[in-house]
Predict the structure.
Amino acid sequence: MRLSKKVLLVSLVLVLAAGMVFAGGSKDTAKKQGKVLTIYCWNDEFQTRFNDYFAAKGLVPDGIEVNWVITPNQGNAYQNKLDEALLRQNSASERDIIDIFLVEADYALRYVDTPFTLDVFKDVGLTSADVANQYKYTKDIMTDSKGVLKGVSWQACPGGFIYRRSIAKAVLGTDDPAKVQEALSSWDKFDAVAAQAKAKGYFMLSGFDDAFRVFSDNAKTPWVGAGDKIQIDANIERWIEQTKTYTDKGYNNKANLWSAESWAGGMKDGKVFGYFGPSWFQDFCLAPAVDTAGDWAVCTGPQGFSWGGTWICAAAGTDNIDLVKQVMLTLTTDKDTLVAIAQEAGDFTNHEGAMAEIAKSSYGNPFLGGQNHIAYLLESAKKIDRSSMGPYDQGMTETIQASFADYFNGSVTKGQAWDNFYKAIIELHPNLKK
Amino acid sequence: MTKTSRPQKKRLVDYSKWGYFFIAPFFIIYVIFSLIPLLSTFVYSFFESYRIGLQQVGPNFVGFANYKAVLESDFLKYTMNTLLLWILNFVPQILVSLVLAVWFTSSSLRLKGQPFFKTIIYMPNLIMASAFAMLFFALFSDKGPVNIILEGMDIEPIRFLTKISWTRALISIMNFLMWFGNTTILLMAGILGIDESLFEASRIDGASALQTFFKITMPLLMPIFIYVLITSMIGGIQMFDVPQILTNGSGNPNRTSMTLIMYLNRHLTSRNFGLGGAVSAFIFLMTSVLGFFTYRSLMSQYRKSPSRKS
């Protein structure tokens, strides 16, 4: 009896003490600066930018640890992990409190109109003058229904057709971006060149999904309409048609996007004419994967488009608000930093004035054989219109590409492919309707 | 008299209490981590409960609507996929494992280097299934090593993962490689449990190896054989990791390699616990029924045969 009473007493004291420690801890963190800056993202693109252009300048105060939580995008894995963490934000330990999280164009809208993102002006402390030079579309996307800006980006993502100079010479007799652009300025011309390339043993595109973004970005209707009904834009149908034709005629290399096969097409003995992509695709994806630096160039291609974009959001409940402000200011508004990122990494950065200056300057991108690609993409950047964007874009893109791969490969009919698409997307988002 | 008997009784009661005390941890952990989640799965299956992004829908009681939705989906197709993928790997697996188990345990063969081979055949099971599937994904990709070898031999490269039969074959080969070592060791344990004198007697009577196998080894191995069959079947119904990784979770081509647990997992992405619960309830039912009948039919034969002889 005595023993059990003692045990009971000791455990009671322990529980109370623990409760006090935790309660005290959460009160403290709300007041003082946290010691850990926790950043949620899906790859190391932002990590490199952060390390090279923020941490390297000594802007991370002494005693602050940067905690990277990196989860790949695919299959909504990143969003699910982020959602769980955001919902636990109030009860999280100091280390687990998210300070910054990144969102991509495909699902940015899921977070903009929620209380989980902080007001860039009122809460974080930037001013409208700070972001005056950013491309308007990058701010429009992140502005919620009440007109509040919820996130900022360091890049703008106008896309172009990134082609191999040597293959262009072999097929078209020139590698000059202006002349190549002339030959590829409409889809009909693009198809004709694809046939010429095929005749010479080259593939116009790498795989099924390479042209997808050109069509989907030009879609006029959002994926999901009123009453959670799934809508298919005519541009998506055109992608299906074109890709089927290209596959059957052997104009593409049947490689999956992001696969080793796809990048192999851009190697020295690769046969792929070009890839559609914005500047992050060229500097972050293509350049590290191929051994053909210098043999590339960019032209606008048959249709202007944009693809992706990464925004920095301050998480509600952050305990490092001053540091978050500093990160946003330095990486997305500081002209010198943005010019440096553009010239050193080749990224198209989010500063209209700086981009216009670089476009006029003698800057040349070594990967693109000295071409000033900023000048080429400058006009497209101004025209970007993402009004048909929606919160479901990532799931839709992944699902339609996976479902229609079977159709392009000839294992199912078009009807079956649509059927599989609807099945898969409704499994992913049970609220949607066919 | 009474004085001496009382303390004895007390002592006995005390000891039995300690018994409960020692087995308590298992039951407490089982209830918390297995039984409650198991029962809550059934409870969830009657509710509509999922997430749209950060917004939680439900739980709203919907009766049998989830069960109806599962029956209206391609559940039967995924069941057949799962069973087919299991049979395709289990039949060769049990044949190879039986042969190896008999060879390894045979006192007349006395194979050399047994520990070495036993280790080797068990090895694939030590690799994580996902890593193994990644390895096969790389080996059999369009421009992977296998196709490079085929090209070198002037054979048209095969796009393995776009063909239904090849995808299924690859999944079965992987499961076979991963599990035949484990099955061999289980069967060996069973054969070693058989009285050696029976084998000696049959040899003296001039029985052939086949006769010994069918007349002595198999009948006496039945309990272990059934154990292997049932555990493998339950494992087969729960097949997930290999096809999930190999086909990137899509079960392509045309969802022909989508297994039941992969289908369940697709509902869990949106935290759709209602529909997921209903799928789980069906899988639970199937596993129970299949397990029960397999056990009944095989064990009844095994029980009858000695009585017929006697």
Observations:
- Confidence is low (pLDDT under 50) at residues 1-5 of chain B.
- Chain B touches chain A through 30 residues (CB under 8 Å).
- The beta strands of chain B are 47-52, 55-61.
